[in-house]
Structure formats: C-alpha cells, structure tokens
Specification:
Blueprint lengths: L1 H16 L7 H18 L1 H12 L5 H30 L1 H22 L8 H9 L1
Helix pairs in contact: 1-2, 1-5, 3-4, 4-5
Length: about 130
C-alpha cells in the first residue's frame, strides 16, 4: 500500500509538472519518473511474486504465480500501448492524473480486500483466504 500510495503521489506530481512552467522542468520530470519507478519497485513490482505465492494453496501455487506474472505483463503492455494515444487525446499531464487516480483506487482495494499475511505460515494464509 505504501508503494502504491507513493506511485499515486509521484504520478500526481508528474501530472502537475506538465501544467506548470518552471526552469529545469525536464529534470524535475526525470526525477519524478525515477521516484515513480522506485515506488513501483517496492510496491506492485514484487507483489506478483510475494503476495500471490502466499494466496494460492500449494497445489495451485505455480499456476497462480504464472497467471499473476502474465497479468502484470499484460497490463504493463496495455499501459504502454495506450499512453501515447491518451496523451494525444487529453494531454500528458491529464494521463498522469488518470493513472494517479487508478493507483489511489488500487490502494483502497488492497486496504479493504487483501488481509495482512505477515507472520503467518503458508497453511494459515491458505485458511485465511479460504474463509
């Protein structure tokens, strides 16, 4: 949740940076993009490897891991394929604001839908998700 929250923050700041005119704006955009990538690396990036290895029961774990990785790559492809079209349609700053809102919705979804599994065994986690 911290990673997604930071992603939302940096995406919103990126969106804002396209609406302001300051000297050195290019460096600001590079810095904010780097911070966004770092936030992804501590949040959603490893989530498909960590969270989904805990969610699925042992006999389905390899299928679940494969599906989660394929899903992450698929949605990365969707973002990559639609970014320029959306930027042409509504502007680059607005696209970053849209992605920021999606990240906030992700934080809300995780908060209400994904229970904490820290300190639990895989068997306890399986029982938690079965209930």
């Amino acid at each position: 949740m911290i990673g997604m929250g930071l992603m939302a923050l940096f995406l919103a700041l990126l969106g804002l940076s396209f609406f302001i005119s300051i000297s050195g704006r290019g460096w600001l955009i590079v810095a904010l993009l780097s911070c966004y990538v770092a936030a992804f690396a501590i949040g959603l990036g490893p989530a498909c490897f960590v969270v989904f290895s805990e969610i699925f029961p042992p006999h389905l774990r390899s299928y679940g891991q494969s599906f989660s990785l394929a899903s992450m790559l698929f949605f990365n492809l969707i973002v990559s394929m639609t970014f320029l079209s959306l930027a042409d349609l509504v502007g680059v700053g607005t696209v970053f604001f849209i992605y920021s809102v999606i990240s906030v919705l992700g934080v809300i979804f995780v908060y209400f839908s994904l229970p904490e599994t820290n300190g639990r065994t895989l068997e306890q986690t399986t029982t938690l998700f079965n209930s």
